[in-house]
């Protein structure tokens, strides 16, 4: 099958896989983005050591709190609330409660929590004698606290402070759907809790009885005062009415005389003897009434009422008109006085009845609240060890998750292929897992002979290499082959943003993979400032001319290339002599000539380049090669560094054809486990080290 057919078949399969993956992500991960729910959970679980550490810290805090906490005991006294008798004066100082309503019981419950009652309890002689009334408090901390400090005494606190302290120990609750109220005391000493609960009810009943007796006495005094006032007003009204009896009798006689004159006038003339007699009686009645009225209106007991009417000539009642006017006023005054006397009589009778009722009610008012059950020795309610431990675990676990989430937010590294693809939109064409420790430990130096053995990191040349490691580079080789035909895309450069990414390792094994496939391959070390390929192949770069000598036109290409002593299809072009000024050796014309010359001689060329960010050498080479592989070391390369390197490449008019994620290890929940082993390889901690943990 030709390369073109294989490329077409690969593209078709890739499209199907991409469609399937996108559908899976939309359905199960919430779409694109590295922080979807599924991915976030995986990333948090990878940091399980932090979660476990915080959980253990939370558990330790729980044990510490249990050790330091003082035992707490509860003792409860229960009271029964019964209906009151009706109030004596309507809504004045009435203690009438409808106990079917929650508000009534709630009012009584609130009366148990007053500062006045708490102060009375704490100052009671029986309570003052309690030795352990003031709690000792939590245990002193080792090396910090004072174990010899004396416990607090009751004399150290004021009465108000003691009352506030009792309020903190007190809990008053109404039992649902009952008339029972529970008074609970929480204290370090079970006996103190019992005594306080019982004393609480005793003091409450005593204070309630005293207040009600005082209120009843006040009511009685009030009623007696009101009754005396009403009695005085009643007597005064009766005296005034009695003083009006004579004028009212004369007024009645005058009225009869007027009626008689009017009747006789219908039958007789004015000179008739009977008419003259009737007229004489009428005049005599007027004179008597006038004299009686003058005496009544000048009587001091009701003078205030008549004063406004005694103006001008009316005060003497000289004429008939004035007399008739005062006659009507006296009749109206009589009606008012009679009504007032009736009202005062009724009010006076009511007051007397209420006074009698109040005197009977004083002896029965204490039955409103009674003890239902007395407090017993307190039962321990704290510390609740299981609850505190569970709380410590939950707190620690939550803090661990929060810390893991914070670390995730601060994480700017790449951990898996999806991280690169989602951020930059460039496919990851290979993921190279970490090698085993024994393979990384082989840090040979240049100058060793072949008899010393090859570097174990040359995977294809090591008989002990596991097949799964070789398969990773075969996948990488196949991915490059599928980019295009070998005639058009034979030159592959291996790039990275910075040192310690593993370019030399990837380039050497990729070149070996091409060579084992039967293709004539050249591996070029283009890192003129910090070369490292000679170390992998155990070569002394100074003993043989190389790329520097060729670019300086000291040696020809044939003289600079050397055969790799490990495979007949693989040649090496190391750096050779040290370049005094690498920048002066590189130019577009020289590089084009160099690439054209080696391209005509080899089927595949793999170029190990210098890091993009520290030096400019790779920027000159990148636009001239066919394939650009960008190596990113997992868990080390930063997002900002890779992004800056890609922007630098874009400025040269070139972009990578794919990422190679080096040192990748699959993360599976509670731990890290690579697909095929463990590997860490790269430049070292800084560009310029002779030999670091990697290249």
From TrEMBL:
Cellular compartments annotated: Cell inner membrane
Transmembrane segments: 48-67
Xref: CDD domains: BY-kinase
Record's keyword terms, sorted: ATP-binding, Cell inner membrane, Cell membrane, Kinase, Membrane, Nucleotide-binding, Transferase, Transmembrane, Transmembrane helix, Tyrosine-protein kinase
Domain AAA: 502-651
Pfam family name, one: AAA_31
EC number: 2.7.10.2
UniProt xrefs under PANTHER family: FERRIC ENTEROBACTIN TRANSPORT PROTEIN FEPE (PTHR32309:SF13), TYROSINE-PROTEIN KINASE (PTHR32309)
Name of the protein: non-specific protein-tyrosine kinase
Lineage: Bacteria, Pseudomonadati, Verrucomicrobiota, Verrucomicrobiia, Verrucomicrobiales
